Amino acid sequence: MTRWKDRVAWNLVTAAAATAVMTFASPAAAAVSSTTTVQATPSAATIGQPVNLTATVTCTGDPSGGLGMTFFDGGDILDTVPVTAAGAAVYTAHLSTAGTHTITAAYNGNANCSASNAETTVVMSAAPTPPPPSGLCLLACGGLINFSVGDIHNEINVNRNR
């Protein structure tokens, strides 16, 4: 019978200790809300031209540390970069398809600041095709006139192409 009394007493003590810890212990500091902004420079570019993405986190706490800032192109992850204590995160994107790209900067939060995100758009256009040769270049640049280069004595083998 004493075993039963000991077990009941032990359970009561354990329950009282757990209640005291949950009731009287100070809660961990909760992360405060944050806001994120993102800017693309330039906002319109040609394929092959880099686009600088600059995101800024505003928070009353220190936004650095944690998992940083993740940049997305639509649903595709571009990269995750660190956030400075001033809240800045910078990534240079090389977008390879023409059209409008929805860029999302997602701040992943840390112990001080909660997660937040922002969007911007970048319009990518195909690189312009070079104009066709004209004028003298039309004649000399592989057009109507065919040049042959000789050896050091400027001797050309005319039978070479037969």
Question: Would you kindly provide a written description of the structure presented here, covering whatever features stand out?
Answer:
The protein is elongated, with a radius of gyration of 34 Å. Strands 2-8-7-4-5 form a 5-stranded mixed β-sheet, with no helix packed on it. It has a 3-stranded antiparallel β-sheet with strand order 1-3-6, with no helix packed on it. It has 2 helices and 8 strands, in the order αββββββββα. The protein has helices spanning 2-24, 136-140; strands at 35-41, 44-46, 51-58, 69-73, 76-81, 88-93, 99-107, 116-125. It has a domain at 35-125: Immunoglobulin-like (Sandwich). With 162 residues, it is an alpha+beta fold. Strand 7 and strand 8 form a beta hairpin.
